[in-house]
Amino acid sequence: MGPKNPRKKKCDKSDHPELSKIENTEPTKDDNQDSSKIQNQEPSKNDNPFPQKPKIQLFEGDCMTLIDSLENNSLDCIITDPPYFTDKLDHKWNSEKIADDTKNSHIQHLPKGMKFDKKQVKDLQTFYKDLSAKLITKLKPGGYFLSFSSPRLYHAIAMGCDEAGFEVRDMMNWIYTQTMPKGMSISHLIDKNKDMTPEEKSHMKEEYKDHKTPMIRSCAEPICIAMKPIETSFLENEKKYKTGLLDFSQKVGEEADKVPINVMTTQYMDPIYDKHFFINKPSKDEKGDYNSHPTVKPIALMEHLVKLFTKPDAIVLDPFSGSGTTLVACKNTGRRAIGFEMNNEYYEICKKRLF
Q1: Most buried in the list 119, 134, 151, 314, measured by CB within 10 Å?
Q2: Nearest Cα to 253, choosing from 269, 241, 239?
Q3: Is the pLDDT of residue 173 over 80?
Q4: CA 27 to chain centre
């Protein structure tokens, strides 16, 4: 998920002429070039934008504009962690204003984005319907659209996909334990109440000392699994587009001997969980000391999703690249990848991780 950079001018298709050249063709021997040598530079007017087509392409700009420049039916898969529209963290938020605004949380010391507003659900669903309507035309039939979400907003993302014509086929859950409780005590509200005596306040605080606001500690991140409808049958779709079927050779569990499951974890938790749901533990240095993005996903998790839902050399889009973990996973597993990122800070982090 990446915030908008207000200092960057609105992106126009002409800013990225190379997008119009993205094609789903068979790779050439030049595709095996060292990805570290690929530079994201503007082509000259007289040159073919990608005379040697790179596997990883990264663009700075608004995905709602850049998507239009992609060819129809050219993508094999889309995997992203979008803005959730919590509090002020929508598709137009920017990191500087959020960091400087001490009043955007109902309690100043709380993390940004915790304020509840029913309007955010409607705003997210509307935005995701518009986004999905653009993306579905760019995916091949049988191509998957994977969207990370939060438990209380998953339905908005799923309905946005459904309304745009996707089939919501499943939900996967990424399970973890390293989170903080978010429910708040009401003691401070009792203290501020002017209609109660000190004795009444003391009594009520004792009565409600174990009661908190309805924000249960979240240890699961749902992933909406949506698919562009196939044309006829899965067999014919595979013959024509190489999309639709999942690779069940991507085993999970501590011994890597279990078929893919819709529950995944990247940390050791419990013998039963580890046996069935464990994928791989992330390394301590994979994020990088320079990576300031607040929601970096484990590379192992993204590699598992990429390998499960796509085939080698497939084209994967991440319209909200953030710090680029989806693109790193594609690079590591031999897939092509296209990334869009609005925020210049995160765009530069992506480049550092990829190139």
Answers
A1: 314
A2: 269
A3: yes
A4: 27
b (16+ CB within 10 A) / e for 209-247 = eeeeeeeeeeeebbbbbbbbebeeeeeebeeebbbbebe
Q: Is the pLDDT of residue 23 over 80?
A: no
The dihedrals phi and psi of 79, each to the nearest 5 degrees, come to -130, 125
Sequence spans of domains, the chain:
13-40+52-174+221-354, 183-216
The whole-model pTM stands at: 0.77
Tokens of 65: 């504009």
Contacts 24+ apart (CB under 8 A), 107-114: 107/184, 107/188, 110/184, 112/87, 112/88, 113/84, 113/86, 113/87, 113/88, 113/89, 114/86, 114/87, 114/182, 114/215
Residues 6+ apart with CB under 8 A from 166: 132, 136, 145, 226, 227, 228, 229
Instruction: Provide the 10 A C-beta neighbour count for residue 136.
Output: 21
Confidence of residue 165 (pLDDT cuts 50, 70, 90): very high
Contacts of 332 (CB under 8 A, 6+ apart): 299, 303
- Predicted local distance difference test score (pLDDT) of residue 116: 61
Amino acid at residue number 314? A
N-to-C CA span, the chain: 20
Residue whose token pair is 């960091």? 99
Instruction: Give residue-wise pLDDT tens across range 246-276.
Output: 999 999 999 999 999 999 998 888 899 899 9
Q: Would you state the pLDDT for residue 52?
A: 43
Tokens of 176: 């973890």
Q: What does the buried/exposed string (b/e) look like for 76-99 if buried means 16 or more CB atoms within 10 Å of the residue's CB?
A: bbbbbbbbbbbbbbbbebbbeebe
Query: How confident is the model at residue 266, as a pLDDT?
Result: 87
Q: How far is CA 86 from CA 94, 113, 203, 291, 332, in A?
A: 13, 5, 34, 22, 32
Residue 134 sits at φ, ψ, to 5 deg, of: -75, -45
Position 210, amino acid: D
